[in-house]
Amino acid sequence: MMAYTPKDFLVWGEIPVTDMDAATRFYQHVTGAELELVTDGPNPMLLFRPKDPANGVALSIYPGTPAPDGVGPTLHLAAEGALAEVMTRVTDAGGQVVSEAVSLPGGHFFYAKDPDGNSVGFYEATG
Fold first, then answer.
1. Is residue 2 part of a domain?
2. Which stretches of the chain are DSSP H helices?
3. Is 99 inside any structural domain?
4. For residue 120, what are the β-bridge partners?
5. Which of 3, 84, 103, 118 is the most exposed place for a label (fewest CB within 10 A)?
6. How many CA atoms lie within 13 A of 38 on its CB side?
7. The domain that contains 25 carries what CATH number?
8. How many domains does the chain have?
9. Is residue 39 part of a domain?
10. Residue that wins the pLDDT comparison between 114 and 71
11. Domain of 42?
12. Cα angle vertex 11, ends 7, 12, to 5°?
């Protein structure tokens, strides 16, 4: 049996939200990214654009029904600045920090919930 080993297993992420404007404010404030509103598909989407679209995983936010509070899958996002600053921005923007920083080889992250209760993680690489 052959083992399937793609460049990335996650090829696209989607976060459902109930309020696109509130989600824009939250995710832009927390990550430091500029989100792009696109309306050429079946639903409006807010896009996180990676530095190199040919070699990065994209993420979008769309109007939808989030999983019950903190229950859905967790997507881990990069954010500008030190992890402690990101934790503060999560709270300032109406989200909730739900864990302390967790250390991994190569970095650390924490779990949070966005204003809709979506489970998200924020990651900071070390080195």
1. no
2. 20-31, 83-92
3. yes
4. 75, 112
5. 3
6. 14
7. 3.10.180.10
8. 1
9. yes
10. 114
11. 12-125
12. 160
How does 21-59 read in b/e, with b if 16+ C-beta sit within 10 Å? eebbebbebbbebebeeeeeeeeebbbbeeeeeeeeeeb
Residue appearing with tokens 């297993």: 9
How far apart CA 26 and CA 38 sit, in angstroms, is 18
| pLDDT of res. 71 | 84
Judge whether 3 lies within some domain. no
**pTM: predicted TM-score of the whole model, two decimal places:** 0.89
Report the C-alpha gap between 118 and 95 in whole angstroms: 9
21: its two tokens: 């404007």
- Percentage of the residues of the chain whose pLDDT score is greater than 70: 99
Strand partners, 46: 37, 61
Task: Could you list the beta-strand ranges (E) of the chain.
Answer: 12-17, 36-38, 45-48, 58-63, 75-78, 96-97, 102-104, 107-113, 119-125
Averaged pLDDT, 14-22 = 95
Token duo for residue 6 = 């793609």
Instruction: Look up tokens 């970095």; give the residue.
Output: 107
Cβ contact 20:114 at 8 Å: no
